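Standup notes, protein team

Yesterday: finished cleaning the Metasolibacillus meyeri set.
Today: DUF5592 family protein structure.
Blockers: none.

Input for DUF5592 family protein:
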Amino acid sequence: MYEIPKEIKSKPKLMGLEVKELIIFVVSFFLFLTILRDLVHGVLVIPYLLIASGVLLWLVLPSGNNPRLKNYQSIRLYFQHKQSSYHALDIQQVINKYEFGDEPNEQ
């Protein structure tokens, strides 16, 4: 009789984008249209606007590598990556490479 919602933590969306993403998109679009447009030669204004719009749309699309993140979030994580972080290795794979070389034995 009562309908149970499947997703409780849904975020409000406008035009398919979350409010935060929509604000980022609009502010970036106005930045490209006003401030940075003056730095482009008059002949290249139309290609500049097309490429800038395409890049902005790509940034708010879901990431191909991580479907829970958007492309701009993936880029931010890439630049925040610590090189000194620990990554676990498969010890058996390391031992096999050390003892048997890179190529597996054919038996």
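Follow-up from PR in the comments: The two ends are 64 Å apart (CA to CA).
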